[in-house]
Specification:
The protein is α+β, with helices and mostly antiparallel strands. The chain has one domain (about 10-185): Pyruvoyl-Dependent Histidine Decarboxylase, Chain B, CATH 3.50.20.10. It has helices spanning about 25-35, 60, 115-135, 145-155; strands at about 10-20, 40-45, 50, 55, 70-80, 85-95, 105-110, 155-170, 175-185. The chain has a five-stranded mixed β-sheet with strand order 2-5-9-1-4. Strands 3-7-6-8 form a four-stranded antiparallel β-sheet, with helices on one face. The model has no long low-confidence stretch (mean pLDDT about 90).
């Protein structure tokens, strides 16, 4: 049922990084370098974790990519030039038990959120989107730990996770945080 030549990723890896520089663009570049993905032409895509895709480590995923290659990713980034302002970038993922189905990736960019809070928020976004497509009902106002239990009881979501980068701004410098789910053909 799949068309020949479709761009469905076989692997996905998660990475993060932080950069600081007097120029905002250079700060972003340094964050991408720290994440190990600056050498690619990144194309931001929306939030679907493909059926059958396998999560791999960054080194394993990078083995399949060449410098200059167009690479699809879900990318969260945030930047600040305010001293002591906390910024965070987070990617959440929710994968269904039935690997024939697709899962969800979410990106979250925030100020003032510590890593745990930003990561939980991104994970909750992804799990909430997946839950609604699977017919799992829950109260959106309940806290994330309670919702996690509902997802487990439903038995349809096999796993959730996140990757989050946070940093505090510094006077005279741009601070950029990035988090990415990188898709490998």
């Amino acid at each position: 049922m799949h068309s020949i030549g479709t761009l469905v990723p076989r692997f996905i890896f998660f990475t993060k990084g932080m950069g600081r520089h007097k120029e905002k663009l250079a700060s972003f570049e340094l964050a991408l370098r720290k994440a190990g993905i600056a050498q690619f032409n990144l194309v931001r895509v929306s939030s679907i974790f493909p059926p059958y895709a396998k999560i791999v480590t960054p080194p394993r995923g990078l083995e399949h990519l060449d410098p200059g290659q167009i690479v699809f990713c879900v990318l969260a980034d945030t930047a600040t030039d305010e001293n002591n302002r906390l910024c965070s970038a987070s990617i959440g993922v929710a994968i269904p038990r039935d690997r024939n189905r697709y899962g969800y990736l979410s990106e979250h960019h925030a100020f003032g959120m510590p890593a745990q809070e930003a990561g939980d928020y991104a994970e909750d976004l992804a799990a909430g989107m997946l839950a609604t497509t699977l017919g799992i009902t829950f109260d959106a106002d309940t806290n994330y730990d309670e919702k996690k239990e509902q997802y487990k009881i439903g038995g349809l979501i096999v796993s959730t996770r996140n990757i989050t980068q946070t940093a505090e701004g510094r006077t005279g410098l741009w601070t950029t945080c990035v988090a990415a789910a990188v898709m490998v053909p």
